[in-house]
Specification:
The protein has 157 residues and is an alpha+beta fold. It has a single domain, classed as Nucleoside Triphosphate Pyrophosphohydrolase, CATH 3.90.79.10. Helices cover 24% and strands 26% of the residues.
Length: 157
């Protein structure tokens, strides 16, 4: 999800999420991500992206969608992305799906954690610091697409 900056600058901002769970609680830079997840067997990639966005945020994405291609992350996972114009009120908490793991390890206790524990709109400089390195390309691709739309006189949002 993207918007033109609400700070009066009009700068491009993208919505990213911080991964939930105990492994990331004290980490911030280089681990945030676009809302994403796994594609089901035979599932259309865009349909999976829409479903995962809603599961990780509680927000319903609405098009039109801008295809941003794919990237391969350091963990060898391929991530496909689309962008859409939208907004989110930070006073509204995210409603993310949860996952369960044994925590603390070896304790025999199963705890549930949200897939994403917080979200934020960020500008390009902040995206460069916070996003998983491979996903930074999505911001650049969206920025280039929007610049092309402005040149054509048809930029949305």
């Amino acid at each position: 999800m993207y918007r033109q900056g609400k700070d009066g600058s009009g700068d491009l901002e993208v919505f990213i999420v911080h991964p939930g769970g105990p492994f990331f609680v004290r980490r911030d830079e280089g681990i945030w991500t676009i809302p994403k997840g796994l594609v089901g067997p035979g599932e259309d990639l865009l349909a999976a992206a829409q479903r995962e966005f809603e599961e990780e945020t509680g927000l319903t994405p609405t098009g039109p969608y801008v295809p941003l291609g794919s990237v391969v992350q350091a963990n060898r996972k391929t991530v496909h992305a689309w962008a859409f114009a939208g907004d989110w009120d930070p006073a509204r908490p995210l409603r993310a799906n949860t996952f369960e793991i044994e925590w603390p390890p070896g304790s025999g206790r199963i705890k549930a954690f949200p897939e994403a524990d917080r979200g934020a709109f960020v500008n390009g400089a902040t995206a460069d610091r916070k996003l998983i390195p491979a996903q930074r390309a999505f911001f650049a691709r969206l920025s280039d697409w929007l610049a092309g739309q402005k040149q054509q006189g048809s930029a949305p949002g």
